[in-house]
Amino acid sequence: MNIFYSPQYTGYAFADLKGNGGLLFDTVIVDTAGLMNLICLHSGLHYQVHDSTERLVAYYKAMRDYTASHPGHILEKSFQTDGLNTAKVCLSWRNALVLAGWTEGTTAPSERMEVLQGIEEFFDCPGNVDQIAMITDAVQKGCMLPDDMNIITPCDYKLFHPAIVKLLEALMARGAEIRTLETACHNEDNNLSSVVHILKGEEKTVVNLKKNDPSLKVLSFEERDDALRWLSLQPDDAYDVWIDSDAKSLDNYLSLEGKPTTGSTVYQCMPQISQLFVIGLSLFQIH
């Protein structure tokens, strides 16, 4: 079974079906959630996970209980000033740490880490990041897996988060094969090819990018809105793909320029009326 995997393969991922008759047999394209669902489907596993809103509320309660039993901790004043937003930030820290292999028993190098470890005693609302460790443990213990797993990643799998690397290595120990997707620019001598070699784990040194090489350009902007405004003013053939987890802001700029939009939605993003207010304020910035 061929599994094209990347944490970035969310939503609708494009697959070139030329030469395949327009069909992919015994092949799937998945992100991390999709990979875990595939393993659960074949192994008969089921884990209850909660969405971001439920977890935020649960983390707020856990932080409140921790503060009541451990007064005077380093984040207490922040929690008293704005409890919900403080809990939201701490939960994002906690999720990032879990992806890096952090657990409740990890040594705390700072007072903030001590607080996060203490909150774990009162927090029991697992999310997708927690499910990775659960499934890794099940794979190591011998759960059923798809036959002949062939996992293809866009870059060296060791560049992924440590928790994902541990899951993939557990699958490899069970007989799964992991290889890196070949790219068209693999053998060219340019900046883009050099970066691809690093991403594939074939080069360990820092690459010095060549000047005036059009294969890879890095554009820097002070604000995200500046980048979106610049992009909306480019001709239609200036780029082929724009990758953005939240394209609603770009659509607003494209709409103002009378250009076709990407078809994004307002789900989990700032409402359009609020974005227009921000755009209006940006017109008065001094450049």
Q: C-alpha Rg, in Å?
A: 23 Å
CATH T-level topology of the largest domain? Rossmann fold
Q: Please, how many domains?
A: 4
How many helices in DSSP terms?
11
Q: Mind telling me which CATH architecture of the largest domain this is? A: 3-Layer(aba) Sandwich
> Stretches where pLDDT falls below 50 for ≥5 residues?
none
Largest sheet: 4 strands, parallel
> What string, H for helix and E for strand, traces the elements in order?
EEHHHHHHEHEHHHH
Spatial gap, N to C terminus: 55 Å
Helix content: 40-55%
**Quantity of strands, as a count:** 4
The CATH homologous superfamily of the largest domain: P-loop containing nucleotide triphosphate hydrolases
Mass-distribution shape: globular
User: Which strand-content bin applies to the residues?
Assistant: 5-15%
Q: Would you tell me the structural class of the helices and strands?
A: mainly alpha
The top level CATH class name of the largest domain:
Alpha Beta
| Strand order in the largest sheet | 2-1-3-4
Describe the structure.
This protein has 287 residues and is mainly alpha-helical. The radius of gyration is 23 Å and the shape is globular. A four-stranded parallel beta sheet has the order 2-1-3-4. The longest helix is centred in the first third of the chain and has 18 residues, at 52-69. The protein has four domains: 2-47 and 129-180, Rossmann fold (3-Layer(aba) Sandwich), CATH 3.40.50.300; 52-92 and 105-124, no CATH class; 187-217, no CATH class; 224-282, no CATH class. The protein contains eleven helices and four strands; from the N terminus they run ββααααααβαβαααα. The model has no long low-confidence stretch (mean pLDDT 84).
